[in-house]
Amino acid sequence: MNIESANERLRHLLDVLSSVQVRPIANGLRPKIAVQGTASVTQIQTNRYVYNQEALLKYPVPQLSKTLTKYLETVRPLLSNEDFKHAEQLVSDFQNPNSTANKLQALLEKRAAEMDNWLTDWWQRVAYLEYRMPVTVHVSPGITLPRQNFKGLEGQLSHTVPIDKLGQKPLCMSQYYQMLSTCRIPGAKRDEMVTYPGDHPKAPKHITVIHNNHFFTVPVYGSDGAQLSMKQLIGQFEHVINQSQSPAPPVGILGTDKRDNWYKAYTKMCKDKKNKQNFEEIQRSIVVLCLDKSINDNHHDEVTSMLYEMHNGSGSQCNSANRWPDKTIQVVVGPEGQIGCSCEHATAEGPPILALLEYCLPFVEKDIPESSPAPGVALPTRLDFSISPDISDMMVSSCQALDSTIQDLDLIGSKFDVFGKNVPKANKLSPDAFIQVALQLAYYRMYGHPVATYESGSLRLFHRGRTDTIRSCTSASLEYCQTMVNPNSSISEKVQKLRDAVMAHRKYTDEVIKGQGIDRHFLGLKLIALENGIDLPKLLTDPVFESSCYWQLSTSQVPTKSENILCFAPVVPDGYGVCYNPMEKSMLFAVSAWNSCPDTNAAKLYSHLKEALIDAQDILMQSQNSNL
Ligand code: COA
């Protein structure tokens, strides 16, 4: 890459993001984002500062009887009559006064009384930090932002991030405080997270820039604490590019491997003092900026190609080693206008990460006058690693493992531009539920049976809330699918079943976001039993229960104002990952599957999904016309 094109690329998110920090406001109400031009900037960690938390609710433990009733409702469409009877029997045994159910519930309620959120630490541990598969491809989402023409400049004013709301209700903002200067560190059985808040003795004043697999510590503040001007930042990045003209060994690839392999390599490398210091520099840095090389992807369309780049770096010969996969936020900038982000998922969900990125986007597109230069700017430092022959071997095997996983990934991104949220809204239907019901129909038409489906439902109405599962396959959605494939069904029957299915989904969603979901409650009962050495109740180990959580459809809505797509991989070998961004007049989708599974096909499911959406619109229109 030449310096001129690099210069252009660097006039992007880079220095906006590089100089963005989250800080508390004096009145403790809102997290504040300070962008270039502000004076002192501090960074904080969740819980240390209270902002808006009084308005938030404490995450409850649902009543056991309600969870069990709901559980039976959710497994009903998935089970034969015989299996359902078996499930009913297990629930009844579980509710028997002699069973451990009440004891577990009481222990869970005690934990809830003693903690600010009984679930979140457990959830982070079991869902993320103890998960041993690679974070790359399997866990970390990739986000594409609108392709740029590189004419934008960065911001200069101080701004606050508005508090996210659900209707009028404020949502917990704690995830925003764990996105910057945060990193995952591989561990023996469980990884850990580190965050360096502004009052930390090692609070960072630098970002990490990766180019040609070389890592650089790039100071973004002058000696007096002022942020660098754009010209100065460009100078820093030119220096990086000059110092990394030929590719370095792919150290970054090690972090894409299974966690235990990465831990082995990491601990070996840490024996060298310089390596250890380098790791810490990367972990402490505010964000990682990946200056990618051209991807020359002839296999995929433009949208899909960008998804691959953001999600996994498109392979070891491309940009997969130009990453630090443990970093919570890696801003990726490609040479052909691609911008986006690769995110480590342990501390935050897609919506707040995208909200932060979207917040920065206007600064990219505005022409902003040059600010005065900061004094005492230190030059970037290249982080050279000492690599032993066994680490070189590990890099080779990490490259092979990642390349074969990427080859196995069947991922497509696409814009559905027939309609957007406007159609369901005009028909007084929840757009999210409408899409979920269409997904049920798409799957049913493809396979002839319903499927256990996971949709992420936000728990951010609660203090430090993350997510619970919206079980999208309901008896009502199954009836809708059966009615739609039945040639004898009338339009009015179809519309009625559609409305019933959408209502059922929205009802389940409302319960989840009010903290009355069942999956995290069951997880809590399981974990509290394990912690107290109590045998797991049969209900929670039974194949029927396990199959109800075998998420062959793993889905999530991540809405934004601009055309961004988030993508993730399926969570089971014979499943799909479906992420969508419903915009007012269009919808963006990313659908994934595994090529190694002969029964799945992302493009085919997406094609059925488009048909299901259009069919739903058609029946609504036909029904309206017949009412005229
Ligand atoms: N009639 C007309 N309009 C309706 C409607 C109805 N019956 N029901 C909803 N709408 C409107 C809403 O008012 C809203 O309007 P807006 O576009 O002006 O904001 C819009 O339709 C969207 O509502 P809906 O589709 O029902 O979804 P939602 O915004 O309530 O979101 C979830 C539902 C489940 C996606 C959301 O609650 C959630 O939990 N998101 C978290 C996702 C997450 O964490 N993902 C993790 C990814 S890593």
From TrEMBL:
Domain Choline/carnitine acyltransferase intervals: 60-611
One GO term (biological process): carnitine metabolic process, CoA-linked
Entry's Gene Ontology cellular component terms: peroxisome
Pfam families registered for this protein in UniProt: Carn_acyltransf
First and last residue of the signal peptide: none
InterPro entries for this protein: Carn_acyl_trans, CAT-like_dom_sf, Cho/carn_acyl_trans, Cho/carn_acyl_trans_2
Entry keyword Endoplasmic reticulum: no
Chain sites annotated for binding (R)-carnitine: 454, 467
Keywords per UniProt: Acyltransferase, Transferase
Domain of life: Eukaryota
Active site: 345
UniProt xrefs under PANTHER family: CARNITINE O-ACETYL-TRANSFERASE, ISOFORM A-RELATED, CARNITINE O-ACYLTRANSFERASE
Protein name, entry field: Choline/carnitine acyltransferase domain-containing protein
Taxonomic lineage from the root: Eukaryota, Metazoa, Spiralia, Lophotrochozoa, Annelida
